[in-house]
Design brief:
The protein has about 190 residues and is of the alpha/beta class. The chain has helices at about 15-30, 45-60, 75-85, 85-90, 115-125, 135-155, 155-170, and strands spanning about 5-10, 35-40, 70, 95, 130, 170. Helix 5 links the parallel strand 4 and strand 5 (about 130). About 25% of the residues are buried.
Length: about 190
């Protein structure tokens, strides 16, 4: 039987801005003991490459008990679980996807970030549970990921069926940020957020 209050290790590879607000807010308000392990790389694409090794190194020194890992995107979770397998073996892992590259439009130079989309897909495969921030996000993944995976593998029906099962298991868990209350002041023109 699990304890009433879990020791949750929250891995946040992009520990800046709204990701940091979310992580710190959850840690402060959860009934569980949430410890945040964050990285602050200045480029998210670089963080995809470096964070698994950096987290695995820090995990090797971790002395506390871990009941559950929550890994936030963007993260190469499959690589992290491979590199950190000695410390993370048997510990349930939840992938929380703030966003996915599959839903982003082509960049200024054209083309999609196919390598990052493949990393998101492998992270989803590696996780015990996958959660996203909104129904819109779930729909974007559900509508685009099967075709992306099919293009990678051709017509492998087993891969397609597995991807359909993976997508159908995605859960929606809104962010829940504490935002400052709006100031009462006279407005001139439309409201801007």
């Amino acid at each position: 039987m699990l304890p009433v209050s879990l020791n949750v290790l929250l891995l946040e590879p992009w520990y800046v801005g709204s990701h940091r607000q979310w992580a710190d807010g959850w840690a402060a308000s959860s009934r569980h003991r949430v410890r945040v392990m964050g990285e602050t790389n200045d480029r998210w694409r670089r963080s995809l490459q470096t964070t698994p090794a950096a987290f695995a190194e820090r995990l090797a020194q971790w002395r506390g008990r871990i009941h559950c890992v929550v890994a936030s995107t963007p993260i190469d979770l499959a690589a992290l679980l491979g590199i950190g397998r000695r410390k993370l073996a048997g510990i349930p892992c939840v992938l929380y996807m703030h966003e996915s590259q599959i839903g982003y439009p082509a960049g200024p130079k054209g083309g999609r970030a196919d390598a990052a989309i493949a990393t998101d897909w492998r992270a989803m495969l590696a996780a015990d549970r996958v959660m996203v921030a909104s129904s819109h996000h779930k729909h974007a993944i559900a509508s685009a990921l099967p075709d992306f995976v099919k293009a990678l593998h051709g017509d492998a029906s087993a891969i397609g069926n597995h991807t359909a099962d993976l997508v159908s298991g995605i859960e929606v868990l809104p962010l829940g940020l504490e935002l400052p209350r709006p100031h009462n002041r006279e407005r001139h023109g439309p409201l801007k957020i």
